[in-house]
Amino acid sequence: MRRNITAYLIILSGLSIFYFGSLYLVSRTSSNHTATSVSSSCYSVMHDSNDLDTHSLQDEAPNSIHEDDQQQSPDHTNNTPPSISSESTHHPPSSSSSKPPSQNESSTQHINTNTTLTSKRANAVIVILCRNNELNAMRRTLREFEDRFNRHFQYPYVFLNDENFTDVFQDAIKQMTTAKVEFGVVPESMWSVPSWVNTNKMNEQLADYQARGILYGGSLSYRHMCRFNSGFFYHHPLLASYDYYWRVEPGVHFYCDLDYDPFVFMQQNNKLYSFTVALEEIPATIPTLWEHTMRFAHAQGLNTTLLRMFANEQEGYNLCHFWSNFEIASLNLWRDERYQQYFEYLDSTGNFFYERWGDAIVHSLATGLFLEKAQVHFFKDIGYKHDNFAHCIDDGVLGKCMCPEDTPNFDYAWGSCLPTWDAFPENGVSWDFRPNGDQIIDKDRITHHPEFISSSL
Ligand SMILES: *[C@@H]1O[C@H](CO)[C@@H](O)[C@H](O)[C@H]1NC(C)=O
Ligand SMILES: *[C@@H]1O[C@H](CO)[C@@H](O)[C@H](O)[C@H]1NC(C)=O
Ligand SMILES: *[C@@H]1O[C@H](CO)[C@@H](O)[C@H](O)[C@H]1NC(C)=O
Ligand SMILES: *[C@@H]1O[C@H](CO)[C@@H](O)[C@H](O)[C@H]1NC(C)=O
């Protein structure tokens, strides 16, 4: 059998473009054409019926070490998660940043994933934004997610939709899991065009994006989704009582048995954000996002250590971002006032609508602005696929993964930003911003940017 050589070819309205945060793509393979069609709400994928991967769905005997985990610890809400420490964001010794990083840092780093050290559970939830017509893709994903992970851990689900879920949808989902499931509607206040957006200009922009063939360029609901995922989901009433979330989308795949609790792992290791795939964005979706991010950083006088992974002062944003259709992260990271200010500033520009800013970019740049590298985790042991991008390393005949047969590992393929992540120094590179337009790199090199002088935002 011929293995697929996948050319990452995005065809849209006759144009070929590379990259995209949230995508639509057609993969050309030697054996078949797997077209992915996309809902504008959940950019999910409806795979062909002959699609892949049932080979990975064999049940394994439940691992006895998790039996304790199935009992909800009564004091789980007392496990206060780490907060973003503003103190901790400005101190990296600059000597370490000039040290050449090992190429394989993310694969050689020793991580203790033995979360059985405590039987504590995290105060966590699985969050899924989905539409009624995505039920089949959702069922497939949920079957895998349950088998690979949640049947042992019983974390609750919250399903969100911009309209009511049908009874059929709700009944079908409840067949898939014994965990608690809640279905909610996104309030209109989180899914509407704000008053300060000029709708004439917006409609012209949508038409222009559409005419240029930019992925989801003409879609208003896609923009609502990106704005909701950037600035609102963590305020949804059904998520109010939780500290951590795992974002799952209909159509994604999970390839490895997970025999530890990634939420407890995040909590015990002070991780606030995580990813499985990092890649480059379509530039046309974000013409002014970097400039606005710079304005914000200067106005706030931010001191950063991770932002340099995403940009430098001469060339600006390198388009790298963590792909947010997979996220295990702290809800309090986004509830934090500093992130809220960043979102509100971005939102005030109207460019979630005039341009087509993706939540993956906003989240990623926020990690750059507010976190250290050590607070972000690459889950290399969570085999994952969305559209035609897969993260899964063959762990051998004694391993726990069955990687997709139709999609190669994207980790070190062209367009992946995992090499950028690996190469970025563990202690970060300091890059500080001052309201007077100064930028201070590595604590001693100062450049002046008069275009970013600000009194306030
Ligand atoms: C990175 O990992 C690969 C595969 O494990 C290995 O062959 C290579 O030597 C490693 N490179 C470095 C710099 O450690
Ligand atoms: C995990 O930690 C527990 C408690 O210390 C220990 O009994 C168990 O052997 C450890 N498991 C592994 C795989 O190291
Ligand atoms: C959605 O469900 C709510 C609560 O059951 C109900 O009050 C409302 O009328 C429903 N909306 C629509 C459009 O059916
Ligand atoms: C950044 O560092 C400078 C110099 O140490 C300090 O005055 C400023 O308050 C810091 N900015 C923030 C947002 O913490």
UniProtKB/TrEMBL annotation:
Region (Disordered): 50-116
Ranges that cross the membrane: 7-26
Gene Ontology CC terms: Golgi apparatus; membrane
Gene Ontology MF, one: alpha-1,2-mannosyltransferase activity
Keyword entries, A-Z: Membrane, Transferase, Transmembrane, Transmembrane helix
UniProt-listed InterPro entries: Glyco_trans_15, Nucleotide-diphossugar_trans
Entry's Gene Ontology BP terms: cell wall mannoprotein biosynthetic process; protein N-linked glycosylation
Active-site annotation: E327 (nucleophile)
Composition skew (Low complexity), residue ranges: 81-107
Biased composition, class Polar residues, residue ranges: 71-80
Family membership noted in the UniProt record: Belongs to the glycosyltransferase 15 family.
The protein's name: Glycosyltransferase family 15 protein
Source species: Lichtheimia ornata
